[in-house]
Structures are given as structure tokens and as C-alpha cells.
Design goal:
alpha/beta, 5-stranded parallel sheet, 19 strands, globular
């Protein structure tokens, strides 16, 4: 490589990052002023309230990554929107605590049934309860999907091709990265791009991964995390307290509760908490509202259109529980696709012990990451790949890791005293979509008498090969950094799929606008629509899809759904 080429290779990322960090915030504030508004708990007292008999323009079910983004975009454009959330309206100052055990109320702990050859535990790691959804307790890691993720069938012969391309989501990725905002180094993988905030400093865990990767020639970068680096509007800087998974009391970490709900409320949306949706109401071919239970009483909110955003377990469950005339097997389930192709990512975690104190908890859990193994390698016996990132299990979770290795009693206590000497890496392995990995209705019922969801999950041979490959890479990184002892625990992360996008009703539940093929004014705006999952955390992609769907609705690009007069862009 010539000197000119080397300079260009360095200069492009440097100038791109500088340009992003110097970009004025006016365009962000114009489309989403959440960071500059009073705190959400103050806005709530003056929030608009609709009556059930008011026919609103849209009722959204679920106020997580997809539902809250969709609600904010439509409300900002002048639509009358009610967002129903089964959980509470959180007050970070009073409801969140810096304690693992004291944060279990953030998870969806309603009864569910799991099965299959490789059952997936549900709750703390893959679902949320309350305004903000699971992003309230996510680690903050917000990478984009790669262009190849949208064409895995065409390029690698596995998975499914999306009905949209990466380029269709790029502008939505970019503007959401500025709104959250996302901090990190220039990203060299997938579609190379800078981030709007500079990377955070790294702690001991990040230093371990950077050192190990450097010695092996593996590219690693700091970020990307949806955690403000410096003040952002009224939001403060991260204080590196390490409790991202317990809810961020200082509001430095992004979640819809603080990044999109405030602006939605300021533009007239109602966030109706404690409202458990029980079924979508139909009148012939069209949705006319949503039945829900609040305060022990069933009610119906009338609406011109409905969007379901309950995520990959509760969204299929709601549609299956909405069976009725014309939809005997569940709403939008004419081709038996509702609940199918639910995916989790294989997420093994490998830890290494070091002679020095690492104190891996003293930083956001995802500090450093690598996507060098993300794409299909023709030399490997498996298709697709995995990513690697730092993770920082807190003491209770760490005790579960250690106990899983067979340590107990005095031995467990001794190893817990050794906690500060360990560093931990985690992988995200792209498990392939399989029709038998699905949500159905169980015989058991919940407190409202509704059948609960049953999730059956099985791994295929490709999944197993990816898990083994990821473990070996993490072991190599930790050894290269100087680890003297290693241990790995197998686990799963995230949930997507269950109501996948497709080009035809035989291929998917929703089309490229996230509208169901069966009901022209019924939308699904959550992670259940993803046909594949990549090796990336899904939050940013879920938000981008919801943003795009709202944008197309606002500008009248969705047939049979009339556009409203836009009040802003």
C-alpha cells in the first residue's frame, strides 16, 4: 500500500468522525426534541388523555423500541395516537435501583411455557415490562445490521432475503444514531460509517479485549453504545456506574422512555400504562380498535388503524388470541406464519482470570467489540458468523456463571472473592431462522384467563458450529491478553422473528411497510418482523424499521391508509 493510500485510509475515518461530532443538533431537535424537554415524569402530568370512544388515528400496542418510535413519529406529524403499555410508566429516580435483585421488576415476568430440544429462558435477558420496553434494561449496544443481512438466502444460501435492502434503512439508522445518541469509533464493518459522539473511555475489561485482539491481528473498536458522551440537551454525561442493565438512573443511556416518549407526549400522544391488550377488534376486513384490560375492567379503544409492538413472544400471542370470523387460526395467520421463525442469538460468554484487578463492572458492559467474524467465511464449515464484545456480569449473574462450572459452597465463596480479577467477553452468534422455532398458545392461562405463550426452540447443526467457533475465538483473545484460567457458559440473547416480513402473504405476515397482508390497516412495528437477525443487537434496527414505516405512512405511501396532514418532519 502506498503512502497516499495509507493516509487516505486514515483520513477518511478521522474526518468522518470529526464531522459527526461537530454536527449542529438543530435537525435532531426539530424532529425529536425529547432531550431538550422537561423530564418525562413532569410531562406526564400534562399528557393528553383520550376517551375510549374517541376514534384516534392510531392505537399502538407496546411502548418499547418499535412502539415508542412509531408513536413519536406519528404524533410529531400531527396524528392522534394512543399507545397502550401493559407495564407501568417508570420514574427512573424512584423506580430504578443500583441492584441486580432489586431490578427484577423491569422484566416481563408473566407466565410463559418453554420447550424444544434447546429451551430458551424468558425474562431478564430478552423482554421488558413498562414504558421503554426491554431497552430500559438493555446494555446500550447499538450496532447496525450489515448489508449482507438483508440477502442471506441469495448470498449464502441460508435464511431468507428481506423485502427491503440495507440502503432503505440507512437514512433511518443515521438519524436515530443522532437522536439516541450513539457514541463510538469509526465503524469499519458492514457499511463503514462514523458515529455522532466520540467513543467513551474504556475500563479494565475493554483494555483486555483491545490488547488480546491487537496481539492476534483482530480488528476491535470502542462502541457503538447509545450512551451520551458529554451532555446532550438536558441529559447528563455517563458516570460509568456500571448498572446499565438495571435502568440508567442518570438518563445517560438511551431508552424510548427518555429518547422518544417525551416528544410524543409533547405532540399530543397518550401513553396509557397498565393497559394489557387482549385482542385486536375487527369490523369485517379492517381493524377498528383494541380490547384491553385496565384497572380490572375490559375496555375498547377505537382507532382508524392499529399497530402491534409487543415483541416476538407477545405479538404472536396477541394475534393468535385474536382469532375470529375470517381468521379462525389467529389474526393474519392464513398461511400459518404467525409465531414461526422466532430467533434467538447464541450468546456464549467466556471469562478469563488475570493477576491484576480488572474490575469489569466499572464501565458500560459493551465497551469494545469486533465484527471481524460477522460474515460468511467460505473456508469454514458453517454459514454466516458472529460478533464479539465485552460484557460485564455483575455479582449475582457472575455467581450463576461460576456455579454453572460446578463450583459450590466454600469453593463458590472463594471464587466470588476473586471476582475483580476476571474479564468477560460475549459473542452473538447468528442462529438461522427455522419454522419449527415458534410461538403457539399453551393450555395454561394467565391472570386474565387468556392462553399464555409457548415458545419451542431447537438448534440446528449450523447453530452448534457457530457456538463452538465463537467460544474458541474468545478463548484465544483472553489467552493472548494474558488470562491464566478460562471458563465459558452457554446462553442466549435477544428475540426477533415470529411475524416476519415478506414479499407475498405466503412468505411473510407483513409487507415491506410492516402492514399485515390480511388486514390493510393493521401494522406490526417491533422485532417480530425481522426475517433474519445478523450478529448484531437488534434495538437500532427495530427502531429504524418503525421509523421508516411511520415515515411512509405520514407521507401517504401506504395504500388503503389515508395520510394525515403532517405537522413536522
Amino acid at each position: 500500500m502506498s503512502g497516499t493510500d495509507r493516509r487516505a485510509r486514515w483520513w477518511r475515518p478521522a474526518t468522518g468522525t470529526l464531522r459527526e461530532t461537530l454536527r449542529p443538533q438543530g435537525s435532531v431537535r426539530a424532529r425529536n426534541a425529547s432531550a431538550w424537554l422537561p423530564h418525562v415524569t413532569r410531562l406526564r402530568s400534562s399528557m393528553r388523555r383520550f376517551e375510549d370512544f374517541d376514534e384516534v388515528d392510531m392505537v399502538v400496542i407496546g411502548c418499547g423500541a418499535g412502539g415508542a418510535t412509531f408513536t413519536q413519529r406519528l404524533a410529531h406529524a400531527g396524528w392522534r395516537v394512543v399507545c397502550l403499555e401493559a407495564g407501568p410508566f417508570w420514574d427512573p429516580e424512584h423506580d430504578w435501583v443500583s441492584d441486580e435483585a432489586g431490578s427484577r421488576h423491569l422484566y416481563w415476568n408473566e407466565p410463559r411455557v418453554i420447550g424444544g430440544s434447546h429451551p430458551v429462558p424468558l425474562g431478564a435477558n430478552n423482554s421488558g415490562r413498562g414504558v421503554g420496553g426491554s431497552m430500559v434494561h438493555f446494555a446500550g449496544y447499538t450496532p447496525r445490521f450489515h448489508p449482507s443481512d438483508f440477502r442471506t438466502r441469495a448470498e449464502d444460501g441460508v435464511g431468507a432475503d428481506w423485502p427491503i435492502r440495507y440502503e432503505d434503512l440507512r437514512p433511518y439508522y443515521e438519524r436515530l444514531e443522532r437522536e439516541l445518541p450513539v457514541a463510538g469509533q469509526y465503524w469499519p464493518w458492514g457499511d463503514p460509517h462514523p458515529h455522532p459522539h466520540a467513543p467513551h473511555p474504556v475500563g479494565g475489561n475493554g483494555e483486555v479485549m483491545l490488547e488480546g485482539c491487537a496481539r492476534l491481528g483482530i480488528r476491535a473498536r470502542v462502541g457503538p453504545v447509545a450512551i451520551a458522551n458529554g451532555r446532550f440537551g438536558n441529559r447528563p454525561h455517563c458516570v460509568y456506574r456500571g448498572f446499565c442493565l438495571q435502568g440508567c438512573k442518570v438518563d445517560a443511556k438511551a431508552s424510548p422512555l427518555i429518547t422518544h416518549v417525551p416528544d410524543a407526549i409533547a405532540h399530543g400522544a397518550e401513553i396509557r400504562d397498565g393497559a394489557m391488550a387482549t385482542r385486536v377488534v375487527l369490523d369485517g376486513r379492517r381493524a377498528t380498535g383494541v380490547a384491553y384490560v385496565r384497572g380490572g375492567r375490559e375496555r375498547v379503544q377505537r382507532a382508524k388503524a392499529v399497530a402491534v409492538a409487543g415483541y416476538s413472544i407477545e405479538t404472536p400471542r396477541l394475534l393468535l388470541n385474536s382469532a375470529g370470523p375470517g381468521h379462525p387460526n389467529g389474526l393474519a395467520n392464513g398461511h400459518d406464519l404467525v409465531g414461526r421463525y422466532v430467533m434467538v442469538q447464541g450468546a456464549p460468554q467466556t471469562a478469563g482470570r488475570f493477576p491484576d484487578e480488572i474490575r469489569m463492572y466499572k464501565a458500560p458492559p459493551p465497551e469494545v467489540s469486533s465484527e471481524d467474524f460477522y460474515e460468511t467465511d467460505p473456508a469454514k464449515p458453517y454459514r454466516r458468523g458472529f460478533s464479539v464484545q465485552t460484557v460485564s456480569p455483575l455479582p449475582i449473574t457472575w455467581a450463576e456463571h461460576v456455579a454453572a462450572q460446578g463450583h459450590w459452597g466454600a469453593d463458590l465463596r472463594s471464587r466470588m472473592r476473586d471476582y475483580v480479577h476476571w474479564a468477560t467477553l460475549g459473542a452473538l452468534c447468528e442462529f438461522l431462522p427455522q419454522p419449527g422455532n415458534r410461538v403457539t398458545l399453551a393450555d395454561e392461562t394467565d391472570r386474565l384467563g387468556l392462553p399464555v405463550a409457548r415458545f419451542d426452540h431447537n438448534r440446528c447443526a449450523n447453530d452448534d458450529l457457530l457456538m463452538d467457533a465463537a467460544r474458541l475465538v474468545m478463548e484465544d483473545i483472553l489467552r493472548a491478553a494474558g488470562a491464566s484460567e478460562l471458563m465459558t457458559i452457554e446462553r442466549y440473547a435477544h428475540l426477533v422473528g415470529g411475524c416476519r416480513m415478506g414479499r407475498t402473504p405466503e412468505e411473510g405476515v407483513v409487507d415491506s411497510d410492516l402492514r399485515t397482508f390480511a388486514v390493510p390497516n393493521l401494522f406490526i412495528t417491533d422485532g417480530s418482523v425481522l426475517p433474519t437477525q445478523g450478529s448484531a443487537n437488534p434495538a437500532l434496527t427495530i427502531m429504524a424499521l418503525a421509523d421508516r414505516a411511520a415515515d411512509r405512512l405520514v407521507h401517504g405511501r401506504v395504500p388503503e391508509v389515508p395520510a394525515r396532514k403532517a405537522a413536522g418532519t
